[in-house]
Specification:
The structure holds two protein chains of two kinds.
Chain A lengths: L5 E14 L5 E14 L3 E5 L6 H8 L7 E6 L2 E2 L5 H9 L2 E4 L3 H4 L6 H11 L6 H14 L4 H4 L9 H13 L5 E5 L7 H18 L2 E6 L2 H7 L2 E6 L2 E7 L9 H9 L39 H5 L4 E4 L2 E4 L4
Parallel strand pairs in A: 3-8, 3-9, 6-7, 7-8
Antiparallel strand pairs in A: 1-2, 1-4, 4-5, 9-10, 10-12, 11-12
Helix pairs in contact in A: 5-7, 7-8
Chain B lengths: L2 E14 L2 E14 L3 E5 L6 H9 L5 E12 L2 E4 L5 H7 L4 E4 L3 H4 L6 H11 L4 H14 L16 H12 L6 E5 L7 H16 L5 E6 L2 H7 L2 E6 L2 E7 H6 L4 H8 L41 H5 L5 E4 L2 E3 L8
Parallel strand pairs in B: 3-8, 3-9, 6-7, 7-8
Antiparallel strand pairs in B: 1-2, 1-4, 4-5, 9-10, 10-12, 11-12
Classes of the chains: A alpha/beta, B alpha/beta.
């Protein structure tokens, strides 16, 4: 599929967190990340914990402000959004779905009331009948039955069902973009595929663009059109989703080799150095993956690699 | 072969305001010396309650029936009959637990060495001696003594879980129970932790392992034998090869099908997951508990409870499809 129109674009987005009360320490969570999400595209953002993937989601959803760099929605800088009214306009186009569905809903309110809140906040309906019609449509879209879910409390659902309901809640406003931050990592393995299928349906039936954030290679391969591989706040590889089974970057290869497969047991010993407690020396401007990389050279430790193009992918590595 | 642990018809219930939750409802299995037994089940199937009732049930969970027999040189101890003090003395030495939430397993405001001091005090051992042993264990899990001076918050999830493995195996426990030890970890750390568990068993630092998870692909990697649990009951058991290559129970089949093979894209082929949700354990359905979601269910499945039948040696299934209709 040809994706031309950039609906969301990140330009050199950087986020530094300062920690510590007296001795100020700063953590570079996102380091000059640039990418775009095309219209009607599912873009997979793949990374382990600490890669900065959730920080990026929060920057797009305006929960955090970037330290530097820009997020453009349809060419407009979202940092220029001022006031509740403009923010509401933005959120009626860009919606988030989060990892833990149980903390996305107020446990003491019925699903219907939570949905009514959203409809009221965004002024989507004038009458109760209109509101109900919007809810019926959203709930049906995620494959649930309105009558069966609407008068229940969050604890009466399984994780998978509740995650569908949080997708339905995001759909109420009729968004163009859904930012789904690890939407399946807390639901049972047997129901993950169907949640992803729901997101795929949104793309195919309504042209909604999805930024899908996750760490599971097979699931990301399955549901994404394009993927971006993040490590320690940097993009290391970017390309069509098929790069996940034909990795170019040694980091992507490390992830690929760690996937547990049902067909076979892990065979050879892993070649990658285990992660060690962070030391103070981490400040050298080489490749961020160099300390764990099995094929690193002196150059990798000293100089930051540039992006090179290989088989339709962009790879940030000296050895490609 | 003699079992090391024998769980017999165990029933463990929660008494709640709404009624009795039958989390573990007639579970029997054996754990043999030197094996890694995988227990697979989705959230709410009772697998963590099973672990708790083996290790140390805490109210509102109560063992209402059955026994947990620990064998040792011809002697047998029924854990369910012990008072909590004796039972506590078994923890760490005979049975050790690696829990799911790595965040909660270590106190956040104390350094790792303080935790080790507590253990020395509890087990009435010399701290310096214990420290030497701990450092040896740390090396085994690819960490060094610098961990002692750290607060758990300073360690990543994978490092924290490896630290807990080192702590849990200090006294060469007979049985290591790992309850979703890697579910909260990244792919790479997950592989490391699972391979470490296997290595600890191979090096006989731990006797046997019970590995509990919802992820059948990871069970495939390290388990020798597998139990499939659903809604408080065991549906199927057998060697890991048998379970993966020739699953008998429809539920096991769906579990295996729900693991996407790497390389499949939605643009080529739609995969399908399991529809519906597991039953409430307050009022489980009569008959087979999987019947409401089972694509092969027939009238009998909805009415009559299914017995466990042995299809060949060491292979057991609980499904009317394999019995006379």
């Amino acid at each position: 599929m040809k994706v031309s129109e950039k609906i969301l674009e990140l330009r050199e987005v950087t986020k530094v967190f300062r920690t510590g009360l007296l001795r100020g320490r700063s953590v570079l969570a996102v380091d000059k990340v640039s990418f775009h999400l095309g219209r009607g595209e599912i873009l997979g953002l793949l990374g382990e914990s600490g890669s900065g993937k959730s920080t990026i989601a929060k920057i797009i959803l305006k929960i955090y402000e970037p330290t530097s760099g820009k997020v453009l929605y349809r060419g407009r800088d979202v940092s220029e959004i001022r006031g509740w009214k403009e923010l509401k306009q933005y959120y009626s186009k860009v919606q988030g779905v989060f990892q833990d569905p149980f903390s996305s809903f107020n446990p003491r309110r019925m699903i219907r009331d939570t949905f009514y809140d959203t409809i009221r906040n965004f002024g989507l309906a004038r009458t109760k009948e209109e509101a109900d019609a919007i809810i019926v449509k959203a709930v049906n879209t995620v494959g649930l039955n309105y009558e069966e879910v609407i008068n229940k409390y969050p604890h009466e659902f399984s994780g998978g069902q509740l995650q569908r309901l949080s997708i339905a809640r995001a759909l109420l406003v009729n968004p163009e973009v859904i930012v789904a931050d690890e939407p399946v990592s807390m639901v049972d393995a047997s129901t993950r595929i169907d949640i992803l299928n729901t997101l795929i349906d949104l793309k195919q039936n309504f042209g909604i663009s999805v930024l899908l954030i996750g760490h599971d290679l097979s699931l990301m391969r399955y549901a994404s059109d394009r993927v971006i591989v993040l490590y320690k706040g940097q993009v290391l590889e970017e390309g069509p989703a098929s790069i996940l089974e034909k990795p170019n970057h040694p980091y992507t290869r490390m992830l690929y080799e760690a996937v547990p497969r049902i067909e076979e047991k892990w065979s050879e010993k892993p070649r990658y150095a285990p992660e060690l407690p962070a030391s103070a020396s981490a400040g050298a401007r080489g490749c961020v993956f160099a300390d764990r990389c099995p094929i690193r050279t002196e150059r990798c430790l000293a100089e930051e690699p540039p992006f090179v193009t290989k088989d339709g992918a962009r790879v940030k590595c000296w050895r490609v | 072969m003699k079992p090391l642990l024998e769980v017999k018809n165990l029933r463990a219930y929660y008494r709640t305001f709404f009624g009795v939750v039958r989390a573990v409802d007639g579970v029997s299995f054996e754990l043999y010396r030197g094996e890694i037994l995988g227990i697979i089940g989705e959230s709410g199937c009772g697998k963590s309650s099973l672990v708790q009732s083996i290790v140390m049930p805490k109210p509102p969970l109560r063992v209402v029936e059955g026994s947990v027999l620990l064998h040792e040189n011809g002697r047998v101890v029924d854990l369910t009959r012990l008072d909590s003090r004796t039972r506590r003395s078994f923890l760490g030495t005979r049975i050790s637990l690696v829990p799911q939430y790595v965040m909660d397993a270590l106190p956040t405001v104390r350094r790792v060495r303080d935790v080790l001091r507590d253990i020395a005090r509890e087990k009435k051992l010399d701290y310096e001696e214990l420290k030497k042993l701990f450092v040896r264990r740390l090396r085994g899990v690819n960490l060094d003594e610098s961990v002692l001076e750290r607060y758990p918050l300073e360690l990543s999830g994978g490092m924290r879980q490896r630290t807990i493995l080192a702590l849990a195996t200090l006294f060469n426990p007979d049985i290591l129970i790992a309850d979703e030890p890697a579910s909260a970890l990244d792919l790479v750390s997950q592989r490391q932790v699972l391979e470490l568990i296997r290595q600890l068993r191979d090096e006989k630092i731990v006797g046997s392992v019970i590995y509990i998870t919802h992820d059948i692909a990871s069970v495939r990697q390290i388990a020798d034998r597998v139990l499939v649990m659903y809604a408080g009951k065991i549906l199927e058991s057998g060697s890991v090869e048998d379970i993966v290559n020739e699953p008998l129970h429809p539920y096991t089949k769906v579990l295996i099908k729900s693991v996407p093979p790497l390389g499949v894209s939605y643009t080529e082929r739609r995969l399908e997951g399991l529809k519906g949700a597991p039953p409430s354990l307050l009022s489980p359905p009569p008959g087979c508990r999987f019947a409401p979601r089972c694509p092969y269910a027939f009238a009998r499945c909805m009415k009559e409870e299914t017995p466990l039948v042995e299809t060949k040696e060491g292979r057991v299934v609980s499904c009317w499809l394999y019995l006379e209709r």
